[in-house]
Write a structure and sequence with these properties.
Chitinase A, domain 3, 3-stranded antiparallel β-sheet, 9 strands, 12% strand, isomerase, OMP_Chaperone_SurA, PPIase_PpiC, peptidyl-prolyl cis-trans isomerase activity, rotamase
Amino acid sequence: MKKLCYVTAIFLLCLSADAQTAQINKIAAVANGQVITMFDLQKTALPDLVRAGISNSNNPAQADAINKILRKALDMMILDILIAQEAVRLKVAITPSDVDKELAQRMRAQGMTKEQFEAQLAKENVPVAELRANFQRSLLRQKVMSMEVGRRVVVTPEEIKHYYETNKNNLYDRNGLHMGLLVYAPNVDARALAAKIRDGSLSFAEATRKYSVAPNKDKGGDMGPVEWDRLNPEWEGRLTKMKPGEVTELFDMQGGRGLKAQVRLFRPGDGDTIKYLTLEEATPIIDGILRQPKAMERFEEYTAQLRKKAVIDVRL
């Protein structure tokens, strides 16, 4: 693969103008007759390149890193093509309404109104139509996997009971829990304020009122009830480890241009009491927890089968 350079967050080829055009139009791969161009591949890989801090591929170490990122992105693009073709066979579709719900969930997770969210996308030069297309592919992938992978995964009652006995002190009623979001203004010392919240000298609600730039700051940053079944992996991993009344450590707000944030999990009006679940009540939750690693194993088997049946020509 020819060397690439990465300048001011725009992925450009270190070639002449004519060579750039030729490289961008070059075919990166063909999967069951569907073409993936180098332009589309570079565009898809751009966020990962940014996160990796890649700035110039003249350094052999960065060239290797670029190659790994591009190949990983290409692998996922090929998989999306194969899954989209499977979706046609299975008569599975994602509606605009499905995408609308996913967008609304993302806005809530980031503590943004529709106007703020769209303004953020504009700053990052991400067209709304492009984001919707990404969500459509992701939702389609999830739906096909649910049909072809999820239904083949079995969790036994014995496994559920064992998990319950081992973890029952962490299994409690999450219904009605709200999330409070505190996004620190860029001109404050977030670490010092977080330390005060931790030692109890400053309440989360007071810190939110005085220092937050997130919505509903006068209401303790209350983002409403947590929709546990619609959390993305990042927020699921964060919130499911918490109990009512707990506040997270500082974390970087995704898409927040370096802003620091904290989250409080709470139950309005009842003093953050914890109601522990019986085995019967906890069974659906435990089933989901135990099902995930089994589903991942089955996912690998299923995608391997798709690739084996497909005609794939990688030209990187």
